[in-house]
Amino acid sequence: MPITIPVANPHAQYAAHRAELDAAIKHVLEAGRYILGDETRAFEREFAEYLGVEHGIGVGSGTEALHLALKACAIGPGDEVITVSHTAVATVAAIELAGAAPVLVDIDPQRYTLDPRCLERAITPRTKAIIPVHLYGAPADLDPILAMAKRRNLKVIEDCAQAHGATYRGKRVGAWGDMAAFSFYPTKNLGAIGDGGFIATHAAPLAERARLLREYGWAERYVSAISGWNSRLDELQAAILRVKLRYLDTDNARRQALAALYAEVLPVRIQKPIAPASGEHVYHLYVIRHPERDRLAAYLREKGIGTGIHYPVPIHLQPAYRGRLGDAGSLPETERAAREILSLPMYPELSEEQVRQVAEAIRTFPT
Predict the structure, then answer these.
(1) Confidence (pTM)
(2) CB-based burial of residue 90 (10 Å sphere; 0-12 exposed, 13-18 middle, 19+ buried)?
(3) DSSP letter assigned to residue 139
(4) Are strands 167-168 and 101-105 parallel, antiparallel or unpaired?
């Protein structure tokens, strides 16, 4: 049966703001400046102000945002960076792009984010940074992570790829660590129509180094002050993101309302996401758990309902990493979650009737 309720629907957001987006795109096309122009500078300023940080740097993707943040913090070969295995592989790929070694720890089974209790035993003399991942729209438990980092003189780089607008203790994620990285992949809460990323920081020296690194290390054009890369947010994506940023809080409020409706109408036997008391969840994904996850997903697909698994195989068990980033069984909460989690449809344009259809289909699932 064709999917009638997709798990994500970036085209619906384009349709919702078509006139403004088309006008923004036309303006860029007619202006004739397509890389690192006025739109990118304006978006960097506007999104930094939204987050409550001093500096913002637009880059080519979320992966590159993490990579360049690590390099800006002088992290490279011989260094270790602690993060989680329950995340998009981009988190670990960025660490390895920087030349450092990922060290993976387990997750809190309620938040699905880095369990601070696992940090102490993971730290070695080579540890230089911690990357907490704010997953599914929920903030990681930052207070103990930041406290540990301060005691051990470690950098904290927040991975905010799934948490645009989420807060922790009243302050937006991305404004807590030494640096933060965002992705603007089209399905994100703040999504481009293509790829894009963003680095946020309060520290002027780190911001300046990140700006150099994103464009060949150029302090002046064609002259490299340091070795760098090519990772630039283009003008079209910046213009699109400026439009969408105006609606981010409204869209997040809609996601929260849909999540509340899911919580109300889903069967009581379904394990639902828990919004942490210390922060505001913005429901990039609405993730449930079920012991027969694969059979439930197949059942919903037969009824035209799309689902996703974020993520089906922990990074330490994937073929590229198996045996070198941790032993099977050493991350029990991560591995248990990977067997049970299921992402239900969630996007601002989803209707309440569609949420009720999803819940009713789950209610009829034979157990």
Answers:
(1) 0.97
(2) buried
(3) P
(4) unpaired
Quick one: DSSP state of residue 84? E
Instruction: Measure the CA–CA gap between 285 and 264, rounded to whole angstroms.
Output: 17
Helix (H, G, I), strand (E, B) or coil at 344: strand
Judging by DSSP bridges, how do beta strands 101-105 and 80-84 pair with one another?
parallel
Are the CB atoms for 235 and 40 separated by under 8 Å? yes
Per residue in 97-148, pLDDT (tens digit) is: 999 999 999 999 999 999 999 999 999 999 999 999 999 999 999 999 999 9
CA 3, 237, 35, 68 dihedral sign is negative
Q: Which string of DSSP letters, residue by residue, matches 40-77?
A: HHHHHHHHHHHHT-SEEEEES-HHHHHHHHHHHTT--T
Is residue 27 exposed (0-12), middle (13-18) or buried (19+ Cβ within 10 Å)? middle
What percent of the chain shows pLDDT beyond 90? 97
Asked if pLDDT for residue 321 goes beyond 70, the answer is yes
Judge whether 114 and 84 are in contact, CB under 8 Å.
Answer: yes
Enumerate the β-bridge partners of residue 42: none
Angstrom distances, CA of residue 255 to CA of 252, 304, 349: 5, 21, 9
Mean pLDDT of the chain: 97
DSSP label of 115: -
User: What percent of the chain is modeled with pLDDT above 70?
Assistant: 99
User: Cα separation of 288 and 351, whole Å?
Assistant: 19
User: What is the three-class DSSP state of 227?
Assistant: coil
Helices 62-72 and 89-97 pack at an angle, to 10 degrees, of 40
Q: Per-residue pLDDT tens for 2-51? A: 999 999 999 999 999 999 999 999 999 999 999 999 999 999 999 999 99
User: What token pair was written down for 154?
Assistant: 């470690």
Cα–Cα dist 78/74, whole Å: 11
**DSSP string for 93-107:** HHHHHTT-EEEEE-B
User: Which single residue is written with the structure tokens 């969408």?
Assistant: 244
Q: Which two tokens stand for residue 175?
A: 């404004």
Residue found under tokens 């994506």: 237
Residues 6+ apart with CB under 8 A from 203: 54, 55, 178, 179
* β-sheet bridge partners, residue 199: 57, 181
Distance of CA 132 to the CA centre of its chain: 11
Q: Counting every residue, how long is the chain? A: 367
